Description:
By secondary structure, the protein is of the alpha+beta class. It has helices spanning 6-36, 41-72, 76-189, 196-222, 234-249, 271-289, 321-324, 344-354, 379-382; strands at 230-232, 254-259, 267-269, 293-302, 307-314, 358-363, 369-376.
Amino acid sequence: MTISALPIWLVDMAGSVLMIVFSFSCLRHIRELNRRDPGNLIWTYLLWVCYLLAGFAISRSAGHILKQILLVSGHNGAWEAIRPYSGSINTFMLIIVASITLFFGRAWKIYREIVRDKIALQTTHREMLNLNETLERRVRERTEALARSEKQIAQADKLASIGQLSSGIAHEINNPLGVILGYTQLLLRDETPGSQKHDDLKTIEKHVKSCKTIVEDLLHFARSSKPRKEDIDIHKVIDDVLNFIRHRAKSDRLHIEKDYGSNIPPMFMDEKKINQVLINLMMNARHATGNEGTIRITTRSDPSVSRVFISIRDTGYGIEEKNLSRIFDPFFTTKPTGEGTGLGLAVSYGIIKNHGGDIRAESTPGNGAVFTIILPVSARNERNV
């Protein structure tokens, strides 16, 4: 070997060694990647390529090193004998790399189709789940609506039956009561106030009037007269009822709060009947709170459903859960005997239904109760909501 060929010799030797080092370094990294994600086709392909390139690097580098050693030591003939085998091994390694590349090219195409099908299946599965949830929600909503309708139909049938019975009884009792009351008041004219007979007659008059009140309630309940609707200011009607309640309460400890919505349109309904409903609900709230508590009246409109909501909340004890489903039944009352006929809420329920609305009660014992009247906004007033 001449001095001028020394750099070429050194570069060839160093390059051969570095080629082996770099190929095994690549093999180590790709094995680590393949170990972390064994299902990844790219890592598998690169692992096989690195195996073959490492083999090629060993074959090629070992050949070059052996060549330089033999040439330097003067064994040119030995190298000439080995040379064809070394070239054949290198060529074989490159053919194997090309074959692996072609094989994984085809496998990659199939893999992409499988991944695409997998994504389509997952998308379809999610859509099926969403459709199933939507279907379940609609079935649940329809079932609840059907249950409410059946309950309302049963309530209407019950009210109709009791109304017919009450109407007959009330007519039969009302006339004799009128006669008794008339004769009692005639006799009172001839008696001296303060006498025993006068006091007895006053007691008779008081109880006959009480009986007539019950009979009149029965007649109101039985008569399903068509509402005489007109445009009314619902806030003015509520204020009139509140003035009446304040006058009856006669207590400084009963607080009445108002929270009126600003966009309530004129309501098209029977003022007297709505007035009657509000008096019934507020008198019940006042009875629940006693002489110390708070009654809160709230109004608001919801243009999306064309409804106006009137809520009356009290701070009384509330209603037991077992009684909530019965409070609109005729003659059902939780008041002591002699303080209620059990017709107020039943009459109110019928009035609101005749106006195309609804009335609901919510309560948690110990935290008061809230009654919500839901009234439709007539088409003539919807544009004002």
